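Escalated from tier 1: flavin-adenine dinucleotide holo job.
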Amino acid sequence: MQHVRIIVIGGGAAGFFGAIATARINPFAQVIVLEASQQLLTKVRISGGGRCNVTHACFDVKALVQNYPRGNKALIGAFSRFQPQDTVAWFNKHGVQLKTEADGRMFPITDSSETIVDCLLSAAKMAGVKICTGTAVVSVEKNASEFTVVLKSGEKLECDRVLIATGSNPVGYKIAEGFGHTINTPVPSLFTFNIRDESLRELAGVSVNPVKLRLNIPEQPQLEQTGALLITHWGMSGPAVLKLSAWGARALHESKYQGNLLVNWLPELKPEEIRDKLLATKAEVPRRSILLHRGIDMPHRLWQYMVARVGINSETRWAEISKKHLNLLIQELSQGQYLVNGKGVFKDEFVTCGGVNLKEVDFKMMESRLVPGLYFAGEVLDIDGVTGGFNFQSAWTTAYLAGLGMASDEG
Ligand SMILES: Cc1cc2nc3c(=O)[nH]c(=O)nc-3n(C[C@H](O)[C@H](O)[C@H](O)COP(=O)(O)OP(=O)(O)OC[C@H]3O[C@@H](n4cnc5c(N)ncnc54)[C@H](O)[C@@H]3O)c2cc1C
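Tier 2 regenerated the structure:
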């Protein structure tokens, strides 16, 4: 194997995984990771609320790619070479056992992201990867077959292959653009919805599972998601909202985070079935107050909010419910309308939609189609997944494949 000099820009999940893979596959490779900040693997450390949702227990490639609003087609081949099963095996081999939660998310059994950080740090050390912190790269040039990596300090480093693993940092995009790559405009993904409704906010903490959400943004296709919804102090969060924010990331950015959200609080019931249940309650407890006696199985505070929202007086008894109010209640329960007017932060996970255009990258080994010897991995690419471990998985996969490419004798 050749004695190749490799520089990895970025000491995050993708940078580390790529560097380790390269150094392990080609023991003659000299691999250096350059990290701008003083801390390594910052996002891994804070990920998944400090637990690090490493991957997702979805081992069927076709099903797996459905979780990527951007990158799903390009990832089919990549995942056929390195998928969650390989991630589990990799961490296992490096002494970290992962466990699967009921919703498929996979975490280290220690429930601590430090386990993953420590594992990557020691695997890098064992593989002989050299790591430089506080070493920001400002530009990269290519002359003949060599790359020159220019540091903020003014120092210049020469190498044969470069991996750009700079996440969503603008400098990474600038370096890629400098080599002729197209950057699809970066915009946020995985966020919560702000909803201006004081009474709804009083329900903060109430969660309903499942709900069916439909998001209407003028001149954009309607988006739909089903799953758990959590009412917050600012509006709505939970897996269904986060998924919607991911699929609608661009459309919502263009609409300045304004949209009309339809919430079906009871997706398992048809409107006629809701009517039957409400009429049955009316027949069973005609003298009870509507506010105090739920007509449907849902959190009590939410029921009370629905009753108030359609204008039913708090004194009204079931026997007195008007046809109009009955219809409004059914409408509210199956198609409640909420105005989204802004986005909030989901602090457990967020990513950037956009980045290096995937058509310009050969997904076999993540090499640039424009510049031989230049590789990309992780969030710098126009790939992002929904919440649940899918973002790290694409980072592991693209970084591992880049490692194969950088370690190889070809080129
Ligand atoms: C709060 C939070 C929680 C998350 N939790 C999860 C989770 O549980 N599961 C999941 O799948 N995903 C999670 N994600 C998403 C996941 O963290 C990212 O998808 C992943 O970190 C991307 O890895 P990366 O290596 O491509 O980029 P990054 O992790 O962003 O690493 C890039 C690195 O490059 C460095 N860098 C940038 N520019 C330069 C430069 N010019 N010179 C030198 N160094 C540079 C940066 O300092 C950084 O260290 C979370 C994200 C956040 C913000």
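The chain has two domains: 5-188+348-407, 192-345.
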